Amino acid sequence: MSEKIAVYPGSFDPITKGHLDMIERAAKIFDKVIVCVMVNSSKEYLFTRDEREQLINDCIAEMKNVEVDSYDGLLIDYVKLRNTNIIVKGLRAFLDFEYEFQMALTNKHLDNDIETMFMISSNKHSYLSSTLVKELVKFQGDVTEFLPKNVERAMQKKYEEGYIR
């Protein structure tokens, strides 16, 4: 039987406890999970690609079947490059589903072998987003329930350096 490898893509700017919950759950289902930091040149990020990769690596250090990578291009090209056909996406709300369904159908159209597996977020993370966290940090709100400690410290540093306004 061949190894089942899943790609969990996202911008992870920053990675949240909701993302980590999804990674942990996917790691129980698949032999290997590749967390892929996607890079979109038309998007502005708080953290660089390298910073995002490092923050995620620090968070998943104990997860033996999870690795972190990054890619600048079409997700399906990356999935094929990694010799798999499985994409894992998290869904928080119906709005997520609408967008992710459109993306999954597009990927399926581009390559019929690509399969997208949807995982519903845990109740305690169903409203959580990186955008929400950045907004909280901007107004000095408490984000301890939403972020791993290393990410919380990195966000605070970005705030102190004036990157979050």
TrEMBL record:
Pathway where it operates: Cofactor biosynthesis; coenzyme A biosynthesis; CoA from (R)-pantothenate: step 4/5
A GO molecular-function descriptor: pantetheine-phosphate adenylyltransferase activity
UniProt-annotated site: Transition state stabilizer, residues: H19
EC number: 2.7.7.3
Cofactor(s) essential for the protein: Mg(2+)
Reactions catalysed, as given in the entry: (R)-4'-phosphopantetheine + ATP + H(+) = 3'-dephospho-CoA + diphosphate
Domain of life: Bacteria
Boundaries of every Cytidyltransferase-like domain copy: 7-135
Localization (cell): Cytoplasm
Residues reported in the UniProt entry to bind substrate: S11, K43, L75, K89
Primary location class: cytoplasm
Binding sites annotated in the UniProt record for ATP: S11, F12, H19, G90, L91, R92, E100, H125, S126, Y127, L128, S129, S130, T131
Pfam families on file: CTP_transf_like
InterPro entries: Cyt_trans-like (IPR004821), PPAT (IPR001980), Rossmann-like_a/b/a_fold (IPR014729)
The protein's role, per its UniProt record: Reversibly transfers an adenylyl group from ATP to 4'-phosphopantetheine, yielding dephospho-CoA (dPCoA) and pyrophosphate.
Assembly and interaction partners: Homohexamer.
Protein name in the entry: Phosphopantetheine adenylyltransferase
Organism of provenance: Acetobacterium fimetarium
Annotated gene: coaD
